[in-house]
């Protein structure tokens, strides 16, 4: 029944994951005192998707969105990796990520893309205290060209070693933790 997927001795058949409409995710975020959304640009590993959703929930994000095509969807693996956070954080799929980011900008969000070569250091990101969309690039190539051009800032995470970059979900977690700290939400 599980198709070889790791389980705990029980299997359950459930309907496909029900994504929220993108407009509703944005509208609900805008009702919050300091809106925070996470966008995924070509993240294809469902474990990374699940880990990003879990970090989004842990650090106060109000929603996650990604493209319908050429990206991981909320599968059993993503759900399990999210440790239940996929039930608490609204998740939307969009047809065109660049257009969706521009829509967020029109609504007052600052859009920041995580980029190892970014000119803005994460710890100097003053925009973190306002309405924000954090864009996480794909595991291999990072941000796509058009998505990178749509970002207001390209943010780099300072690292002290010779490691060139972090895993997509780790970079998202580090960034979201810093945003939460700047907003006074971190303990």
Describe the model.
The mean pLDDT is 90. Helix 2 links the parallel strand 1 and strand 2. The protein has a 7-stranded parallel β-sheet with strand order 3-2-1-6-4-7-5, sandwiched between helices. It has helices at residues 22-30, 46-58, 76-81, 97-106, 145-150, 168-182, and strands spanning 36-41, 63-67, 91-94, 110-114, 120-121, 132-137, 153-156. The protein is globular. By secondary structure, the chain is of the alpha/beta class.
Helix content: 25-40%
- N-to-C SSE series? HEHEHEHEEEHEH
- CA-atom Rg in angstroms: 16 Å
- Counting helices, strands and paired strands, the structural category is alpha/beta
Short description:
With 187 residues, this protein is of the alpha/beta class.
Key attributes of the depicted protein:
single chain; 187 residues; alpha/beta; globular
Topology record:
Elements: H1 22-30, E1 36-41, H2 46-58, E2 63-67, H3 76-81, E3 91-94, H4 97-106, E4 110-114, E5 120-121, E6 132-137, H5 145-150, E7 153-156, H6 168-182
Parallel strand pairs: 1-2, 1-6, 2-3, 4-6, 4-7, 5-7
């Amino acid at each position: 029944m599980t198709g070889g997927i790791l389980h705990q001795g029980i299997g359950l058949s459930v309907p496909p994951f029900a994504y929220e409409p993108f407009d509703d995710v944005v509208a609900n975020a805008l009702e919050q005192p300091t809106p925070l959304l996470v966008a995924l640009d070509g993240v294809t590993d469902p474990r990374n998707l699940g880990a990003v959703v879990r970090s989004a929930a842990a650090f106060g994000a109000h929603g996650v969105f990604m493209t319908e095509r050429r990206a991981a969807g909320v599968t059993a693996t993503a759900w399990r990796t999210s440790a239940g956070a996929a039930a608490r954080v609204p998740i939307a799929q969009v047809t065109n990520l660049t257009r969706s980011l521009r829509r967020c900008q029109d609504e007052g969000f600052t859009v920041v893309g995580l980029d190892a070569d970014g000119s803005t250091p994460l710890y100097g990101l003053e925009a973190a205290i306002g309405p924000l969309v954090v864009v996480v690039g794909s595991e291999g190539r990072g941000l796509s060209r058009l998505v990178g051009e749509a970002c207001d800032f390209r943010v780099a995470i300072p690292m002290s070693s010779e490691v060139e970059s972090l895993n997509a979900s780790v970079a998202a977690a580090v960034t979201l933790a810093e945003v939460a700290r700047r907003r006074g939400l971190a303990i």
